[in-house]
Design brief:
Layout: E1 23-38, E2 41-48, E3 51-58, H1 62-70, E4 76-84, E5 87-99, H2 123-126, H3 130-152, E6 156-157, E7 163-164, E8 188-189, H4 194-204, E9 206-214, E10 230-239, H5 243-264, H6 266-271, E11 285-287, H7 288-297, H8 310-317, E12 324-330, E13 347-355, E14 360-367, H9 372-381, H10 390-397, E15 403-409, H11 410-417
Parallel strand pairs: 3-5, 6-9, 11-12
Antiparallel strand pairs: 1-2, 1-4, 2-3, 4-5, 7-8, 9-10, 10-15, 12-13, 13-14, 14-15
């Protein structure tokens, strides 16, 4: 039976496309463009994760010529031969076609735009954009920097749960995803690692997890450009740590991450037109009531005792050129696990970090309530059902420490550091409210 496609066999890639040097080479990648110059020469632009490079392919071998005649854009190939300048002289049997792409390709390069909401249902094509490569390399560096920062400080990573018996109720206007058909169980999908990271304090003392958060956002949330139904979150929690300690920790962590990507991702930052500066510590702290007044001056009202809206966050953060905190939220604006300030019981010891230039909230956190009776009262006060949290409440009967922590949205951090307009640009396969996509 005739082979329908070619295999790697003993061929090994000698280097990535943009890093290739003269001499005997074996290149592998995607055909970006191809044009015939003469009977035995072609101009081929080849693409891989490092970029696109032009080569002038020359060959006198009939089998090579036959394969080159067939090539179409987006075909996956390997070329073996001697490179001198841009001229690549192919060996006998110097080309393999691993996948001959259908022609024509259904979209133009201009249409493969990671910022286009209309192209989300065709994301399998859009990921070919070079901007997607830059974003994913930036994402990888951010996660690497987070883990380095934590390891240096002796903070243990643990794996949180995606299928949860109870989850964080403080998800603003979003609903929770349920699993009604799974073994007739009470399980739901985790909206954050909040409850599980507090549990992890008992054996581990100081912990973090990088895990998915799943929230059934309202369809209207897509218009904010900063909400996903399925995103990744860094969750940090530390025993015997207070409000000010955890803010100081988060500031230094953000400073470390920015320093890391500025050093290691110059290419990506330049390509994404992101001009970062290392923020100065400590960050400015603005009480909630002052932030509300600032937003009101900009024409956005916030009801008494309410959470600051997304629109208000945007106009407030446009006034700043580096990250800052909004602190001391009203007790009515936040969920029950935050600890009341004992000197002013109308506020809870909780905060948001807002990124500057209109990017808005990136971190939410604070001190946790750790007294069993008070926690039970707070749950009832919020109109929630304590029976949903029995396993969680049990821990507080038998010794839970004072703690503080925060959650940081990975995609929102990428959006800020990568200077992206829309949150769906920061994830290879984003889940945007109201849009069905791969």
């Amino acid at each position: 039976m005739k082979k329908m496609y070619e295999t790697l066999d003993n061929w090994k890639r000698s280097s990535f496309i943009t890093e290739v040097r003269e001499g005997n080479v074996c290149l592998m990648g995607w055909v970006d463009k191809i044009n015939k110059l003469s009977n035995n020469s072609w101009i081929i632009f080849i693409r891989d994760k490092t970029g696109i490079k032009k080569f002038i392919i020359k060959t006198v071998f009939k089998e090579n010529i036959s394969k080159l005649e067939k090539l179409t854009p987006e075909s996956v190939i390997a070329l073996k031969g001697k490179l001198i300048g841009l001229n690549l002289n192919l060996n006998n049997d110097g080309i393999k076609i691993f996948n001959l792409a259908h022609s024509p390709f259904p979209y133009s390069k201009k249409e493969l735009n990671i910022s286009s909401i209309k192209m989300l249902p065709k994301r399998q094509f859009v990921i070919r954009s070079q901007d997607m490569v830059y974003i994913m390399e930036l994402r990888s560096s951010i996660l690497n920097a987070i883990r380095q920062y934590m390891k240096k400080r002796g903070i243990t990573e643990f794996s949180s749960q995606t299928i949860a018996l109870a989850t964080d109720p403080g998800v603003r206007s979003a609903n929770l995803f349920t699993l009604p058909d799974y073994q007739k169980s009470p399980y739901i999908l985790s909206s954050s690692a909040q409850l599980y990271k507090q549990a992890a304090l008992i054996p581990l003392d100081k912990v973090y997890t990088i895990s998915p958060a799943l929230r059934a956002e309202q369809v209207e949330a897509k218009f904010t450009g900063r909400h996903l139904c399925d995103f990744w979150e860094l969750d940090v929690e530390m025993a015997f740590t207070n409000y000010d300690d955890i803010m100081n920790f988060a500031e230094r962590m953000l400073q470390y991450i920015i320093t890391f990507v500025m050093k290691n991702n110059k290419k990506e930052l330049n390509a994404l037109n992101s001009k970062l500066k290392i923020p100065k510590i400590p960050f400015i702290k603005i009480p909630h009531y002052k932030a509300v007044k600032l937003a009101k001056k900009k024409g956005i009202e916030t009801g008494k005792g309410e959470e600051i809206s997304w629109g208000a966050e945007k106009v407030i953060s446009e006034e700043f050129n580096q990250p800052f905190w909004v602190v001391d939220y009203p007790v009515t604006s936040r969920t029950w696990y935050y600890r009341r300030d004992l000197k002013n019981t109308q506020i809870v010891r909780t905060m948001d970090l807002l990124y500057p230039r209109g990017f808005g909230e990136g971190i939410t956190g604070g001190e946790r309530e750790y007294d069993y009776k008070t926690l039970l009262e707070r749950i009832k006060e919020k109109g929630d059902n304590p029976k949903k949290y029995l396993w969680y409440l049990d821990m507080f009967k038998y010794g839970m420490p004072p703690s503080a922590g925060f959650g940081l949205g990975i995609e929102r951090l990428i959006r800020f550091l990568g200077n992206r307009k829309y949150i769906w640009e920061t994830n290879m396969f984003p889940r945007v409210p109201g849009i069905i996509s791969p």
